[in-house]
Design a protein that fits this description.
Elements: E1 9-10, E2 21-27, E3 34-40, E4 43-47, E5 57-60, E6 64-70, E7 77-82, E8 91-98, E9 103-104, E10 108-111
Antiparallel strand pairs: 1-2, 2-7, 3-6, 3-8, 4-5, 8-9, 8-10
């Protein structure tokens, strides 16, 4: 297993339905930091470039970037994307990262309706 020390709190996609727009929000981010949101269908371990593999690594195998957002003054960042209908009833893994700070969120596993 990959060691993980999450410092950010990632929420599950809302409203959690495939074929609709869903918002993913992360909290406890340093205000002004650029957060990258990622997903994968499988767990694993992926190195964050420039970060210590023994401290912080993604728990996603071959992650795909969903998008990025800058954290507001309250340390909150969100993105909204349409989830394809093909994701219905699939478990998708999500994680967020602030690469230049080597900060990560916990891993979120989610099954879309």
């Amino acid at each position: 297993m990959t060691p993980v020390h999450p410092t950010m709190d990632l929420a599950a996609p809302n409203p959690g339905r495939a074929g609709e727009s869903n918002t993913i929000t992360v909290r406890n981010v340093i205000p002004g930091a650029r957060v990258t949101f990622l997903y994968s269908k499988t767990g694993g371990g992926t190195r964050i470039p420039g970060c210590d593999l023994q401290r912080n690594a993604l728990q996603l195998d071959s992650p795909t970037v969903i998008g990025a957002a800058v954290a507001d003054s309250n340390g909150v960042a969100s993105i909204t994307r349409t989830v394809p209908p093909v994701a219905r009833n699939q478990i998708i893994l999500f994680q967020a990262v602030v690469q230049n700070e080597c900060a990560i969120s916990q891993l979120v596993l989610f099954r879309f309706e």
